[in-house]
């Protein structure tokens, strides 16, 4: 069997096109959704992601600005700038690109963002809202994964879903969303004993371990839906996922590629969240 490829780039384009009506309705009321992205330090990958986010907004005629600060920026100065943005009515979404330099407390910084403008959905009150089934903003990567599963008409009710990785930005919200959709969810990590025994039971397998090609075809249930959240740059400069694509595609029913899978969906869902933040101001 060769798996269907779940094309995140194509799906992200379709979602973007479908947003045009909502954007026009806002513009008719003189509201242009606006995002401010804060980047601290000079991590090269973060610079690419931030640029991609800003370009996506600009191409659709939305406002976006990127504020770049040196790694030496103090936590106080950063939090003061966020407070100013919280009070700026032209800014609907505020995003602090992660990871932050080690001298800054990411939790403290994120919790300075007004929850109504936290389009990443990382603020502790937005995490709590998601956990209690009343989300204000769904974190972009797991939100994008849910859209991919929806586009594949995956029946989640009663399905066995296994999520590998329990980060606040991917694994934990992912597990909550799958559970809410009716799946039986197991959360594993890279140290889980006999990981393959878990992954081989999964009808839906979401991998977010940060370990290149850790999941191989022999660990996958035939016909399973495999979602690879990993983005690892090899020494040859090529991107690799957390799943070994060549062996996995021979076993899975459908699989996301890297690049061109989950990554583009993360960016488009940021757009969705920012438009929603602007609509709430109507
Ligand atoms: N504040 C946030 N920080 C981070 C998030 C986030 O959602 N919010 N997620 C990741 C990084 N990220 C977005 O910020 C992100 C990473 C990768 C992609 C993407 O489109 N990748 C492409 C490949 C790009 C390349 O060539 O390097 C793909 O997979 O096709 C989008 C968003 C951590 N930080
Ligand atoms: Mg991808």
TrEMBL record:
Gene Ontology molecular-function annotations: methenyltetrahydrofolate cyclohydrolase activity; methylenetetrahydrofolate dehydrogenase (NADP+) activity
Catalysed reaction, written as an equation: (6R)-5,10-methenyltetrahydrofolate + H2O = (6R)-10-formyltetrahydrofolate + H(+); (6R)-5,10-methylene-5,6,7,8-tetrahydrofolate + NADP(+) = (6R)-5,10-methenyltetrahydrofolate + NADPH
Pathway this chain belongs to: One-carbon metabolism; tetrahydrofolate interconversion
Record key words, sorted: Amino-acid biosynthesis, Histidine biosynthesis, Hydrolase, Methionine biosynthesis, Multifunctional enzyme, NADP, One-carbon metabolism, Oxidoreductase, Purine biosynthesis
E.C. number(s) listed in UniProt: 1.5.1.5, 3.5.4.9
A Pfam family assignment: THF_DHG_CYH
Residues covered by the Tetrahydrofolate dehydrogenase/cyclohydrolase NAD(P)-binding domain: 139-281
Gene3D superfamilies: Leucine Dehydrogenase, chain A, domain 1 (3.40.50.10860), NAD(P)-binding Rossmann-like Domain (3.40.50.720)
Key word Transferase present: no
Domain of life: Bacteria
Annotated NADP(+) binding sites: 165-167, 231
Keyword DNA repair recorded: no
Residues in Tetrahydrofolate dehydrogenase/cyclohydrolase catalytic domain copies: 6-120
Similarity section: Belongs to the tetrahydrofolate dehydrogenase/cyclohydrolase family.
Function: Catalyzes the oxidation of 5,10-methylenetetrahydrofolate to 5,10-methenyltetrahydrofolate and then the hydrolysis of 5,10-methenyltetrahydrofolate to 10-formyltetrahydrofolate.
Subunit structure: Homodimer.
HAMAP family xrefs: THF_DHG_CYH
PANTHER family: C-1-TETRAHYDROFOLATE SYNTHASE, CYTOPLASMIC, C-1-TETRAHYDROFOLATE SYNTHASE, CYTOPLASMIC-RELATED
NCBIfam families to which the protein is assigned, alphabetical: PRK10792.1, PRK14186.1, PRK14189.1
Name of this chain's protein: Bifunctional protein FolD
Species this chain originates from: Advenella alkanexedens
